[in-house]
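ok so I'm stuck.
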Amino acid sequence: MNPVLAMFYVFLVYSVGDFIADKTKAFISMFLVSATVFTISFWNGVPRSLFVDSGLLPFAKITICMAMIHIGSSIDFNDFLKEWRTVILAFAATLAICMGVFFIGRLLIDPYYALMSAPIMAGATISYLIMEPLAEAVSRPELKIFGVLILVTQSFIGIPMASFFCKKEGDRYMEAFREGRISAEKNKGSKLDLRLFHLPEKLSTPNVIICKLAFISYLCSVLAKITGINWMILGLIAGVIFHAVGLVEENCLVKANGFTFVMASIFTLIFAGLTQTTPEMLLSMLQPLSIILVLGALLCVVSSVIIGRLLHFGWRLSIGLAAAAFFGFPGTYLIAKEVSNACGRNGDEVKVMWDYMMPKLIISGIVSVSVVSGLLGSIMVHWA
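replied:
not stuck anymore, here's the structure
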């Protein structure tokens, strides 16, 4: 396929996905729309070499570590310290979902399906990218397709759960606020500053930022060969550390004007698994897919309620935050905004609700999707 035409078609599909996601307030994700359109396209004559022809697939393999560094650079130590209970809840619930899906799921469905889906169900995109080599390791390419199915459908479980229970928690919180039983005063304690370097603006140009990300990615690839740790996980850790000490800018790829293109290319790593699908294959996966989704939801509810009780979190808030593992950002941001608008009667109350709910949802999503599930995936991919 002509490379320019191939790139046009890929971004056309992404655009349709963005439009539908926006109209449905992210309930129908861009991933689900794009995966559906690509699958139907491949069944109806679109070349299965689409992603390679577009140049995006090989580009993604080079820049994926940069994307992980970018995610790490968005993590603020101070937010994590302030919301330490949210961090513990998200960590423990994600671990429970992942281990439960694997150990219980393998009794109900194909053990390799359970292994492939466990970190993905407890996380999202990063986990899929880490678990993808499992399919080649056991010579079962259909595992990639099952992983994509989990990835694109888990938001149908997570978003309604998070939205419903966070709204219930929001109503409880605002009732207590209006009655004067709680104060909305924000924590104004001192912030931990780990910066060792203060880079001048002239050293934060797009070219300089990309140069730094490329070099750090190279270091991660070398360290991965030495340690055996997945280089994406090393990139995530490097992003957190280098941002904390001041060597990498916050949300670095955005500042370098490269975020959209890099992420668009990385999505092709996920959708590339769809090139091998057939209608019969998808039909055969409906039953195990349903089992994993239901099992993941039940584990989320049970584990979060137990853990939340130990942390003195209400059960509604606990379930709402734990469900963020099924979709992550930007869904966490959108739900926080939706809950704030729904529970606040005026501008001041909306702000109070936003200050209460937004940090918890965002941090829960980061911990589960960007950190814990990725770490678990880097371990479990070797369990084959």
